[in-house]
Amino acid sequence: MTDFLTTPGFLGTKATLRSDLTLVLILITAVLFNIGFILARQKHFKAHRWVQTSAVILNSLVVIISMVTSFIIHILPGIPAKLNQGDYAVTTVHGLIGAIALLFGIFVMLRGNELVPKSWRFNNYKLFMRSAYALYMLSTLGGVILYIIVFILGI
């Protein structure tokens, strides 16, 4: 298992195999979210629901298995003492946006599949779904920028 954490990645950067796989899987979820967005605009709501549900599940697994554990091991021990350092600050902001996007996105997905109590249901689907989509895309962009800063620029 430690080989997976330390083996050089396949994208030709300073990243490990784990980081490269995480990046690729998150980019796949971003593509899926965009496909789902297009399906909704074309009024293919059943296909939209399936694609978005699949994307949320894949995203959740990647975040929980890779990103949360990495944050707990590498960043959390340095908080709050090292928050004034760039890598800690950027990673923490990305983690906060990502956590909000993940939790809100899971809620929207559960609501879209009618799996939440009636008292929690909303009727303005466009507002909630577009907000979740925007948060996911913002978090994805932040993750790509973080990958570039850490593994390509070496900052």
Task: Output the keywords.
155 residues, mainly alpha, Four Helix Bundle (Hemerythrin (Met), subunit A)
Verbal overview:
- This protein has about 160 residues and is mainly α.
- The chain has a single domain (about 1-150), classed as Up-down Bundle (Four Helix Bundle (Hemerythrin (Met), subunit A)).
- It has helices at about 1-5, 15-40, 45-75, 85-110, 125-150.
- The longest helix has about 30 residues, at about 45-75.
- The protein is globular and about 45 Å long.
- About 20% of the residues are buried.
Summarize the topology:
Layout: H1 2-6, H2 17-41, H3 45-75, H4 86-112, H5 125-152
Instruction: Output the structural class.
Output: mainly alpha
Main β-sheet, in a few words?
none
Poorly predicted residue ranges: none
**What is the C-alpha radius of gyration, as a whole number of Å?**
17 Å
How big a fraction of the residues is strand?
A: under 5%
- Examine the coordinates and then state which fold CATH places here, giving the name of the CATH topology: Four Helix Bundle (Hemerythrin (Met), subunit A)
Q: Give me the count of strands.
A: 0
Domain count: the total is 1
CA distance, first residue to last residue = 27 Å
Helical content, roughly?
Answer: over 70%
Q: Total number of helical segments? A: 5
Please, what is the oligomeric state? single chain
**Rough shape?**
globular
Mean of the pLDDT scores?
A: 92
CATH architecture: Up-down Bundle
Element-by-element helix/strand order: HHHHH
